[in-house]
């Protein structure tokens, strides 16, 4: 497939690019600073673009089979950035008639796991309070997805870890795995790439965790 990856220099984005290339896909990696993307290969095209430039974003998605986004605010000071950038991506996809989009979000944005215990509810409540601005941004981003015409999937992991790819994790469409507290960034990328061809995840949030 021909894929475009936004946020390609982030922890999840780099893994998406790496794993997509290993699977034989051709990847357009959209970045602000190419020096921050260590992934190279014959199948990757690195495009330096400002995501505030609609024309550049349209050119990056034109003719692609799917778009994957690792975009996200890294600090509370960047509140609203994910929603703003995602709006630009959605407008470009709709203009170019590219249908498939998979984004990374976060577990607290979706519904809690069924039968969640008191400890897990407490932990989730504390984390949600500390990072409330970031999660508010992600909720608004998901609102933009829901209002769009694209075939989107939002992958919602819990706390992220830097761990090797396992390919072994739990997944709940429309919900979240009970007692799911961690997931490696490499496995988040794996789940996102798996969702691209999974029609059961279209216009759904997908909770993922070990």
List the helices and strands and how they pair.
Layout: E1 2-6, H1 11-22, E2 26-31, E3 44-48, H2 54-61, E4 66-69, H3 81-96, E5 100-104, H4 118-130, H5 132-147, E6 151-156, E7 159-161, E8 170-173, E9 182-184, H6 185-196, E10 204-209
Helix pairs in contact: 1-6, 2-3, 3-5
Describe it for me?
The protein has 6 helices and 10 strands, in the order βαββαβαβααββββαβ. Helix 2 packs across helix 3 and helix 3 packs parallel to helix 5 (132-147). It has one domain: Rossmann fold (3-Layer(aba) Sandwich). Helices cover 37% and strands 22% of the residues. It is globular, with a radius of gyration of 16 Å. It has an 8-stranded mixed sheet with strand order 3-2-1-4-5-6-10-8, sandwiched between helices.
Radius of gyration: 16 Å
CATH topology term: Rossmann fold
Could you give me the name of the CATH homologous superfamily?
A: NAD(P)-binding Rossmann-like Domain
Q: Spans with pLDDT under 50 lasting ≥5 residues?
A: none
Total number of beta strands: 10
Task: Work out the helicity level.
Answer: 25-40%
Number of helices: 6
End-to-end distance, in Å?
28 Å
Mean pLDDT: 90
Q: Which CATH-level-2 architecture?
A: 3-Layer(aba) Sandwich
Keywords:
210 residues, alpha/beta, Rossmann fold, 8-stranded mixed β-sheet, 6 helices, 37% helix
Please give a quick description of this structure.
The protein has 210 residues and is an alpha/beta fold.
């Amino acid at each position: 497939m021909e894929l475009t990856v936004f946020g390609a220099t982030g922890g999840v984005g780099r893994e998406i690019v790496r794993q997509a290339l290993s699977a034989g896909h051709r990847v357009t990696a959209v970045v602000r600073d190419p020096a921050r993307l260590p992934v190279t290969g014959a199948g990757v095209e690195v495009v330096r673009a400002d995501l505030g430039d609609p024309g550049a974003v349209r050119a990056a998605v034109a003719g692609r089979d799917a778009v994957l986004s690792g975009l996200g605010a890294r600090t509370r000071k960047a509140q609203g950035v994910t929603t703003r950038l995602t709006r630009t991506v959605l407008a470009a996809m709709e203009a170019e008639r590219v249908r498939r989009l998979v984004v990374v979000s976060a577990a607290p944005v979706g519904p809690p796991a069924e039968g969640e215990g008191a400890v897990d509810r407490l932990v989730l409540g504390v984390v949600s309070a500390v990072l409330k601005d970031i999660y508010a941004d992600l909720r608004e981003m998901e609102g933009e997805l829901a209002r769009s015409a694209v075939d989107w999937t939002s992958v919602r992991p819990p706390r992220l870890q830097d761990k090797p790819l396992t390919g072994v994790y739990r997944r709940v469409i429309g919900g979240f795995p009970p007692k799911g507290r961690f997931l490696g960034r490499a496995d988040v990328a794996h789940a996102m790439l798996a969702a691209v061809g999974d029609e059961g995840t279209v216009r759904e949030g997908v909770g993922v965790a070990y």
